[in-house]
Amino acid sequence: MDVTFKIRRQNPDIPGKEKPYWQEFVLRDVDPTDRILETLHRIKWEQDGTLSLRRSCAHGICGSDAMRINGVNRLACKILVRDLGERIQVEPILGMPVIKDLIVDMEPFFDHYRQVMPFFVNEDPLPADGRERLQTQADRELFDDTTKCILCACCTTSCPSFWANGHYVGPAAIVQAHRFIFDTRDQAGKERLDILSEPNGVWRCRTIFNCTPACPREIEVTKAIGEVKLAIRKGKTVGIIQPNVAH
Ligand code: SF4
Ligand code: F3S
Ligand code: FES
């Protein structure tokens, strides 16, 4: 099949191309099962080597090729041509400064990520027998969903609250905080809840829900945010989440 791509381009370093503009490319003999990443590579390698995009693993793991494809945030390496049709529009994810074409500056996103202490904290000595810090399967289940995050930014850059206020920490950072807040072995839950109680924390979420369908890992993002809000309101992390599984 032939497919027409309309790609939003921008190069702040080249006079005349500083402002965003659209460019069309027609690709012949596209296989419907080709992934969008492959078609963008074909455009770059066969038609215009200056087209710039970020990617690494090509298998939905690294989270580096998030783009807005036909108006929806997706990973270019996970979405197939047959799911989009013969006209495909590709643009950078919204709310981030564009470096070039489809590449955005992810530093503001990772600044928010770093704010929420996305690391395990436990000052107690390890068990004397040399074993790991153990927890039950039911306790592990409390944060199982949020361990799946690959920091692709599809959620944060689809959130109208983030578009309106780039200081909002955003759903991805809250998902990362959730992973540690509800880990029964961690000791910094209260600190993270205090950070997320700040004006640009979790209460900037207006439950718009764009983030949940945007997540390529199918994390229940809005649910996780709701659990963090509830933990702040109740002033505790225990008893907020009911595990889905009985052990
Ligand atoms: Fe990406 Fe989902 Fe993590 Fe958001 S929660 S950064 S959409 S993997
Ligand atoms: Fe935004 Fe998701 Fe909340 S889209 S407003 S973070 S539910
Ligand atoms: Fe790694 Fe798509 S290139 S997730």
Structure commentary:
With 247 residues, the protein is an alpha+beta fold. It has helices at 36-47, 107-115, 137-141, 160-164, 170-181, 189-196, 211-214, 221-234, and strands at residues 3-9, 21-27, 66-69, 72-75, 87-91, 98-100, 103-104. The protein is elongated and about 60 Å long. It is 28% helix and 13% strand. A hairpin with a 2-residue loop joins strand 3 (66-69) and strand 4 (72-75). The chain has 2 domains: 3-104, Ubiquitin-like (UB roll) (Roll); 107-234, Fumarate Reductase Iron-sulfur Protein, Chain B, domain 2, CATH 1.10.1060.10. The strands form 2 sheets. Strands 2-1-5-3-4 form a 5-stranded mixed beta sheet, covered by helices on one side. The chain binds iron/sulfur cluster, FE3-S4 cluster and FE2/S2 (inorganic) cluster. Residues 63, 149-155, 171-172, 175, 214-215, 217, 219, 221 line the site of iron/sulfur cluster (SF4).
Quick description:
With 247 residues, this protein is of the alpha+beta class. The chain is built from eight helices and seven strands; from the N terminus they run E-E-H-E-E-E-E-E-H-H-H-H-H-H-H. It folds into two domains: 3-104, Roll (Ubiquitin-like (UB roll)), CATH 3.10.20; 107-234, Fumarate Reductase Iron-sulfur Protein, Chain B, domain 2, CATH 1.10.1060.
